[in-house]
């Protein structure tokens, strides 16, 4: 080896394998300095909290990548900039959610009591009363909507995946399902109201009408979720069943549906959670009442969303009791929707195909 090659080998041996790295606490240091700059401007210049937060964010976006570029190089600097932008977007998205939950908890918790869940608003003026009638109405209306929507949605999805592939009718159904997905909820309520007026005459109000309106909103969700789950079932399972001489309908009921059951049930639960808080359709066709009505096919039926609407817009005298009940009912409705989402996750995990032995 010549002298020049020896010198080059010695030089390469002295080169670091990686570039210098910022310490782990560097982002926190820059964040603290940025917040200090924003707070200082808020005190000296008179910036509001929003302006101070914007200034602190701009300082952080400039200072950390600049420091990283000097020490770590341009690639790591770009990575830190993108990470900061992603975290900022996450924080911005969480602000309205946290604010909403905090506001509902602060205003709704004082209304929560045993009487609030066990009493109705029948003959109640001012203080007292509860949401028992609205909870029962929401349960009954949503139950009937589920009974209507699930069979129709699941069977429509089975046709699209198993029988109607590349057929003109399947394309038309897919297009209509996509259109129904974007229908405003109030249009569904007007459709149900117009249909029931034609059948029963003007002035009709009943809980089943609200169920029909909600089913218009649920069906496209059930169809889409079921269709996607059925598409995930491997064709090899179907072909193996056909090779054993099993007819197609039995292959669907015994092989395809059990394999996709976890996703189908999750989609159904999410659809129920989606329509449980709808107000406009129920306001139009189901109406409102102060008493408990267990018959969805007769008279008006109270539901939680409509109860919240009337309690806040028409709180009565004095108004503070009605508005307190509205916040309490809103807290209960949010808890119900959250519980349905958690139940959907649990059901999906329980019915998921077991891969282990």
Automatic annotation (TrEMBL):
Part of the binding-protein-dependent transport system for phosphate; probably responsible for the translocation of the substrate across the membrane. Keywords: Cell membrane, Membrane, Phosphate transport, Transmembrane, Transmembrane helix, Transport. It is found in: Cell membrane. It comes from the Bacteria. Its main location: membrane. NCBIfam families: 3a0107s02c. This is Phosphate transport system permease protein PstA. Residues 135-344 form the ABC transmembrane type-1 domain. The chain crosses the membrane at residues 30-63, 84-105, 131-161, 173-200, 206-223, 255-273, 326-344. PANTHER family: PHOSPHATE TRANSPORT SYSTEM PERMEASE PROTEIN PSTA. The gene is pstA. InterPro entries: MetI-like (IPR000515), MetI-like_sf (IPR035906), Phosphate_PstA (IPR005672), Phosphate_transprt_permease (IPR051408). The keyword Transcription does not apply. It is a multi-pass membrane protein. Belongs to the binding-protein-dependent transport system permease family. CysTW subfamily.
